[in-house]
Sequence to fold (399 residues):
Amino acid sequence: MSYLQRSIERGPLAFGLCALMVCVSPAVANETIKLGLSVPLSGAAANWGKGGEWLCKQAAQEIAKGGGVKVAGKVYDFECVAYDNKYNAADGTKVAQTLLTRDNVKFIGGSLGTAPVRALQSMSERDGVLLFTTAWGKAIKGPKFPLTFTQMNTVYEISKPLLGFVKQSNPNVKTVALLNPNDATGQDVEAADRANWEALGVKVVSSDWYERGTTEFQPIAAKIAALRPDAVDLGAAPPPDAGFVFKELKALSWNGVKVITVGSGAEGVLATGQDAADGTYMGAAMTFDSPATSAKQKSLNDGVKTATGESVNAIQIGFYDSVYALKAAMEKAQSVEPKQVAAALPTVTFDGFYGKSAFGGVAMYGSPQQILVPVIVSQLKGGKLAELQRIAPDEMKGR
Fold:
């Protein structure tokens, strides 16, 4: 016999109390899906990780306020859980074990750094966990890794159009010196940049490496300046490191064309490089005074600046987009099972930071695991970042 039936049999007083106190069913709370984040929260790349964490949480809050993720009669909210991978493989392995073994996470909402991501991926694919990553090595994508998706433009999307624009704008550039961090990320960028510079008829006169955490760049700059290259491309260097290098180069009277292929933020370069950074071309930064910038983008940029002290950049933006991509794929699949969600991801479009976005890249990677968002070519001018060109991916034209 139900509580309501017993209350009725006991008389009107009992029934009245029931009606007032317990007979109205409480609202059922939404279920929670944890999104793990493996990101640098300390060191030179900490800005990337902290901004990415903020944007993940912001997207989760927006989705919750909009009614949550509706799947098979249930409603889900997202919770972003971040750990510091310190941008290296050893700590990346520790974070992977924490997320997958202790926290039992089934979705990685974002991960940073090729070396720590490789450590994470070795577990996530085996354990059936869907992985979003900003890492761009071709070796981590393709049919062998059906649960891995890249959440930002990689060097393979950025390098060719950016360097082509730089060469067209500076036709006298005949030689270039490359400098990258000595890790998997730097190695991937170096290989792509070298090939694209050479395809433009520019001779690579040197390609050097430095360890992340380096604070003394004068010897490196001296070696580069002695070669007198027309251009210096700092590839995957974090913004503060790049600023230091350009400052040292200026002190040595070098004043050529400056490039950071995957340069992601103006403030970090300017903070350390000051006026020596003027003129730098970047391929992963974004300006917020362009006519193409929406009110929503400006609002998100304000939030990231409050949280990190710097404007939002393309590396961080992926952590916002991945949450909305998951929502779209879960609702399309009507499932929260990672393999079914992964199968749905290439079939959906979703409203991300840049507007309508999707996944593609079969021609490059062998499977549709690459997010399709614009490449934005920008340049530091007079202490401000200016957008020079916005290049939409061809695949989005038919979506």
Notes: Residues 31-152+293-373 form a domain with the Rossmann fold fold (CATH 3.40.50.2300). The longest strand covers residues 74-84. The first helix runs from residue 3 to 10.
